[in-house]
Amino acid sequence: MEIAATNTVTLASPQSRQFSHTFSRSLPSLRFNLSGRNLSFKSTNLRVSATSMSAFAAEKLSPETFLDKKESGILHFVKYHGLGNDFILVDNRDSSEPKITQEQAVKLCDRNFGVGADGVIFAMPGVNGADYTMRIFNSDGSEPEMCGNGVRCFARFIAEIENLQGKHSFTIHTGAGLIIPEIQDDGQVKVDMGEPILRAEDVPTKLQGNRGESVVAAELVVDGVSWNVTCVSMGNPHCITFGTKDGQDLRVDELKLSEIGPKFEHHEMFPARTNTEFVEVLSRSHLKMRVWERGAGATLACGTGACALVVAAVLEGRTDRKCTVDLPGGPLEIEWKEEDNHIYMTGPADLVFYGSALL
């Protein structure tokens, strides 16, 4: 695969994350001229071009106009991020099969030789009465059941291509079940993430339940160190730890995440591998976390992880049911409601740029 990076790539500046629905604002941008660089892969040619929304404003194009372009061998996409957890969004509403393979997704997600992303998300036709179906390929080609930041990006993507204004909600079929996001008047997305799964074999984990069938503050030996862990599934597996068995609480900024993260992910106690959240308690309503995601590694945010860690914190008696969770990319608001046992996540999702890839 060969990328001929001969186009000028225009990306919105970090100071300009808010975009007008009418694409009428002129936004400052940073330009990176990649002309003349020859980057090599092993298979067919891939050319990636991208532009900020300010460029489309000049052409008076809408998102649906851009994505409706039908050109053989070209993938049109939109890139979004939720607190820095970034995704390539593909309009796949005309088919129940993804428009690209998992191998192509890996190459597109490569941050040096591709577009760069934590995963590729496909907006597909709904099944079983749902309005839409969401599928995801991680940056390593694996397919997770769900992604909390990804579903917020999905919701904003649908609102853009369906030209929905104001407050809207719809249903999304995922590998973790039915998810219901609601776009708020301020552009934030509130998501009903459903009920947490606590039964050990359903997480899944081989650790034995120590509170009924749940694993709460149980011992897990990783590389010779005993950790206290609580296991929760949000449709995808999570292992949450607030510190080691010797009573030492975490200082997450001091954690060598790239060393310890993979050892949790691939631990024999997690037959489907696991996402791992390392958590520091700041108060009864304020938590700070770093995450090692299954299939993606260290990321700036993990929505399902933020939900899972609030469940773990409540089960361990560390916090109340409504918390602000600080992630490297920014805060999420999480509430585990006692009346319906559902978890609600509220946070942003921002459009970054439009792009096309010649497959």
UniProtKB/TrEMBL annotation:
> What pathway or pathways are given for this protein in its record?
Amino-acid biosynthesis; L-lysine biosynthesis via DAP pathway; DL-2,6-diaminopimelate from LL-2,6-diaminopimelate: step 1/1
What are the entry keywords? Amino-acid biosynthesis, Isomerase, Lysine biosynthesis
Q: Which reaction does it catalyse?
A: (2S,6S)-2,6-diaminopimelate = meso-2,6-diaminopimelate
Q: Which SUPFAM superfamilies does this UniProt record tie to the protein?
A: Diaminopimelate epimerase-like
Any Pfam family matching the protein? DAP_epimerase
Q: Which domain of life is it from?
A: Eukaryota
GO biological-process terms attached to the record: lysine biosynthetic process via diaminopimelate
**Chief place of localization:** plastid
Q: Name one GO cellular component term.
A: chloroplast
Q: Where is the signal peptide?
A: none
Q: Where are the transmembrane segments?
A: none
According to its UniProt record, the EC number is: 5.1.1.7
- Extract the InterPro entries matched here: DAP_epimerase_AS, DAP_epimerase_DapF
Q: Where in the cell is it found?
A: Plastid, Chloroplast
The yes or no answer to whether the keyword Methyltransferase is present is: no
Q: Name the enzyme's class.
A: isomerase
Q: Name one GO molecular function term.
A: diaminopimelate epimerase activity
- Asked if the Swiss-Prot or TrEMBL record annotates the protein with the keyword Isomerase, the reply is yes
- Protein family (similarity comment): Belongs to the diaminopimelate epimerase family.
Task: State the name under which the record lists this protein.
Answer: diaminopimelate epimerase
Originating organism? Brassica campestris (Field mustard)
